[in-house]
Structure formats: C-alpha cells, structure tokens
Hints:
The chain is of the alpha/beta class.
Amino acid sequence: LHVRSRRQRQMCIRDSAMVGPRIFSTGIILYGADGDFKATVNNMEDARSAILRTKAFGAFSVKSYNQPRRDQRQHVIKASHEQQIQVVPEGGSTFFHNMSMILDGHTGIEHNIPVANLYQDVIKLWAASKTAYTPTLIVNYGGLNGEYYWYQTTNVWEDKKLLKYTPRGIIDSRSRHRTMAPLKEYENGHILVSKDAKKLSDAGVKVNLGAHGQIQGIGAHWELWMLAQGGMTNLEALQAATINGAHYLGMEDQIGSLKEGMLADLIVLDKNPLEDIQNSNSVRYTMINGRLYDTETMNEIGNYEKSRSAFYWEMNDYAPGFDWHGETHTGCSCEVGH
C-alpha cells in the first residue's frame, strides 16, 4: 500500500487498511514566511478564515509557525480560542521570540530555548503562564544535537529490532560515519538544556517528549533518556512521555494513562524503566485500540492472529546492504508472514 500524504496515512490507519500508531496532526502549518503554503494573517478576518478552514478537516490544534509579528500571532490565538482550538508554535531558536510566545498565551513552546542556564525571571514567568514545553533535545538548539550523542556512544547499525522496521540504507547513512566530539560538548549542549527542562518541570511547567521524527523507533527512547540525563527522575521522564503529552493535546481524558474508559493504547515491557530508564526499549508487545502486536515480528496476536506482510525493502531484492556482521543480504526476512 503506497500512501502519499500524512492525511492519507491517518485515514488508512483509522479505517484499518494500514497498521500504525494513533496519529494526531495540526494539519498544514500556518506559515508566516513566503512559500507555497503561506498563511497570510494581517487581521482577525484572516485569522478566523485560517482557523475555520483547519477546523473543518478535523484539527483541534494548529501550528503557528514563523508569523513574524506579535499582532499576527495574537490574531491566530484569539481566533483559535473562539473555536476552542489550541495553538502550538515553533520556537525558531530565537530567545526573545520564545518569550513573547509565552506572553501571548500559546499552548506550548516547541523546540528548546536556545540559551542556558535559565534563571528565575524566565522560570517564574513560564510557570505562571501555564505554557507547556517540548524541548526536542534530539535536535538541540544552541549546541550539538542530542541525536549525535547516541550515534557516537552506541552502535546504532547493530540494533536488530530497529533494522527490522527501517531500511538498512537509512540506518547506515546516519550511524556508520559518525560525528565525533568531546563528550564535554554534549554536557554543555543538550544535557545542559535538559537540566533547564528539569528546572522548569520542578517549577510546574509541563515538559513533554518530542522526538522530531529524526529516526523512528529509537528516537523517542533517546529523547526520553536525554530528559533523564538532565536530572529528571525516571518517573518524571516517563510522565513527560505519556500523561504530560496527553494533557498538552487536551486529551488526558482519553490517552496518556491506564484506567477504565481510556483508549486501549499501551506497551508491555520486559524490564522496568523505573529501575533503568533505558529499559523503555525492552518493548515486548504493543496494543493500539485494543489490538495487540508482537514487536519482534509486528504480527497481530491475541484475539486476532494475523501475520504482517513484507515491507517494501524486503521484496524484490530492494536495496541490498550489509548486516551487522558485515555480510551482504537481500530479499525477504524469513520471519515475515506472507
């Protein structure tokens, strides 16, 4: 099944034509810079038109991105409040832009504040605003990306589970030829920013996990572990990855925790992440909407028994590469159900 757009993928997953996670999207961003999909917002009428159009196809939040003037961003926020739509912005690695976004009343700030350390003026302002924070350490502003830390300190190309679900060419091109830097630079980079996220969390700011789509499967785990590197307890980091994000979406009554009446989305781990945060990567089973999947094979099990079909890179000798022993391989995996 070849699906061209995020919207089409959402529809296919919703209609059970395709297996995948529960997906929430802001839709097309309300982009302020010139381009093919610019959202021109110069008055309340412009803002209401953009919000109503986005709400019409099901969005309950919008992403206000690079609207350069505060009055433009405030128009979007006011129009969104009228329609009970949340507004999330891109930080853009500009500190004063970030601060004005907090003052304007955005739902959250996405991407990290590009300065560290944060002091009480920022921490108290942010906490009082009830604005959330998704630092996205994996693409850290103001220092080395956190993503590079994991390429440097772990042999990603040897991760057998990751390779089951990602073409080897993607993994090899990112991980075999690595950016190497003194570890001190990471301590003064994403780890320092993570320490600021801990300060904000302690002050009452809801910090969320966001993996930016850098490398599916493992990226969210890296982001979780980096929150712990900044001093969050394992429980606090897990809350950032679950209930905080649900609250950020305004959906804490449906997702983010395990209790009666919630949507049946969960994972089953072999090891306890409260003991070691990196145990988050010991996923044995994944349940989506009450249907259970074996993460070693992606076959559905439990009430329904269904083997997955082959991925495109497993068919017709697509993109042969080297396995982790350095031996060439082609064709389908013998573990795949056809």
